[in-house]
Amino acid sequence: MSPVTARTVADDYVAALTELDPSVATALGVRSDRMPDLSPAGLAARADLARRTLAALGSAATDTDADRRCARLLSERLTAQLDVHDAGEDLRSLRPIGSPLQGLRSIFLMMPTATPQDWADIAHRLAEVPRAAEDYRATLAEGIAQGMLSAPRQVASAVAQLEAWLEADWYAEFVAAGPDALRTELDDAAAAAAVALGELRAWLAADYAAAAEGTPDAVGRERYLLAARSTTGARVDPEEAYAWGWAELGRIEAEMVAEAAQVLPGKSVGAVLAHLGTHGPAIEGEEAVRRHLQDLMDTAITELDGTLVDIPEPVRTVEARIAPPGSAAAPYYTRPSLDFARPGRTWLPTLGRDRFPLWDLVSTWYHEGVPGHHLQLAMWVHLAPQLSRYQVSIGSVSATTEGWALYAERLMDERGYLTDPAERLGYLDAQRMRAVRIIIDIGMHLELEVPAADPIAAAFLADAGLEAGARWTPALAREFFGRHCGREDDFLDSEIDRYLGWPGQAISYKLGERAWLAGRAAAQERATAAGRAWDAKAWHTAALGLGSLGLDDLERELTDL
């Protein structure tokens, strides 16, 4: 009889969760035609599974480094998950990104559509959307009963998102590509799903919004630290991170001033970014920009293969897609299924635009695609047999994945891919945005003071007519963001809603990148001390082979490679 190891416990957990939660099954590439149970009972069942898994993990063998890493990850992730559940946070999970609401649509984008059986599964799952929407409503209603509510800003954003889906008649548009033999079944199920979403929208706009009135946007220290642990796999020191965010912002802005002078000498950074948005190189049309982004990723794969890492054949396929109407404003990536039948995909929300300036797209697609999210997450899938399915999929930690993706942007700059001043300015603006995220995410939720001793903060206070000691509010954060980010207004508005509704996630990018950079620097120092050359390809290959880790472990593991 084979011994029970941490990796077998982890894989048993994935198998059980796949049965319990059909959305996990679909994400992993396991065929399913059911919608998940989003009710309080469904939440309790998943929590019970986590507790049983932790109990089993306690007696599992951890004799190898791989099992040791897996055990630490599984223990930390499930403990953090149960802390969130026990605090009642999943009873108020309502926001325009990363909540069960989005799963009522996004689950269908992960399903195969190649065969009549695929479409039969879609029809059956679509027919369950009304039940899933009612389950979700029951959970939010339980949150109302327990005083666990999302803030009015999040309610309004979710309602607007549902309105966009309904206006686009999204379900009907989606099933239009289905076979004629299932036309009646697909159309009826799509119509019923749309009715269910309309009823959910009306309930949120009336009953839930009324109950949520007065719920503050800021979550406070206790809830913030709980949320930040979920996204970082670490117990974050918010004051340290806040101060470091200001230091990073100062460093990046100084570099941006020098870069902007190469585009329009004598003009401010803001003026240069505005000029690039209006007069810089751009692509017209959704299909044209999709093709451009596809070419950008295909070229990166070809040129990085064998130099950064050896890229296996399944990982070489990635698709650029246009995000459906009603998506959040930020581009995103969806990972491949475990069998690679569904490839990794990048998604560009167009927000009604038909013209796409290039200055900020290049580094963004290095982040979302290659060598960012796609290279890391698809490599994990390729290495699943050597790790565990848990470590390469649902055990992901935002700070490790987003940190790698931000590090990947920097890596491309270091390797000479961002020599065009406009594109390099776009990269720096993306770095600046992630530093601002740390400042305003922590600042808003903990209602910290804007530090008058910092030069950038002092200038902002003076321009805004505020005295020293002013504390962050959403309105103040939005004004600051507008001064220190070159993106469009609708994107910035969406981002403020995102940070307020998803506390702690916005800090994972820069804190994760900091860990990747520190681990790399320490590994280079160890190599030098040992009298050997540091092998960048070997180090990146080994780093991507670690699988998911929390920030409490990431830097140490990278140092030892």
Any overview of this molecule?
- The longest helix is centred in the middle third of the chain and has 30 residues, at about 185-210.
- The protein has about 550 residues and is mostly helical.
- It has a 3-stranded mixed β-sheet with strand order 2-4-3.
- Among the domains are: about 5-225, no CATH class; about 285-425, no CATH class.
- The chain is built from 24 helices and 5 strands.
Query: In percent terms, what proportion of residues is strand?
Result: under 5%
Provide the structure class: mainly alpha
N- to C-terminal distance: 33 Å
Q: How many DSSP helices?
A: 24
Give the overall form: globular
Alpha carbon gyration radius: 23 Å
Organism: Georgenia faecalis
Pfam families: DUF885 (PF05960)
Protein name: DUF885 domain-containing protein
Task: Please describe the topology of this protein.
Layout: H1 6-20, H2 22-28, H3 40-57, H4 65-86, H5 100-109, H6 116-127, H7 129-145, H8 152-167, H9 170-175, H10 183-212, H11 220-232, H12 238-260, H13 269-279, E1 282-284, H14 286-304, E2 318-322, E3 332-334, E4 344-348, E5 355-357, H15 361-368, H16 373-382, H17 398-414, H18 421-446, H19 455-464, H20 474-483, H21 489-501, H22 508-529, H23 536-544, H24 551-559
Parallel strand pairs: 2-4
Antiparallel strand pairs: 1-5, 3-4
